[in-house]
Amino acid sequence: QVQLVESGGGLAQPGGSLRLSCAASGFTFSVYPMSWARQAPGKGLEWVSGISNRGSETYYADSMKGRFTVSRDNARNTVYLQMNNLKPEDTALYFCARVRSHDYRVYDYRGQGTQVTVSS
User: Fold this and answer.
1) Cα–Cα distance for residue pair 35/59, rounded to 1 Å
2) Tens of pLDDT, residues 96-114
């Protein structure tokens, strides 16, 4: 079955960096675009970034542009999210998700998430 397992979250100071990973299994990873989304306490799910199936196209929410970088390694069935210049408002549970169609905000599977906390 489809499995998405995130890792790499933790505590970071403002201005710091974290790199999230998402290991995929149970489907042909290289066929699917992937996205990252997040959910902060008391808020709804927020789309963060998306990457095409071959990694040639990447997309970001406005507040993440210039700070976050999404990438993927299809040989390792893994998608990454490099997060730099972290801000307290980036504190959230981060999910990777398989994109269902051409809309990077519509998913059919997502992982359990990895917690990112940005605090001094």
Assistant:
1) 9
2) 999 998 899 999 999 999 9
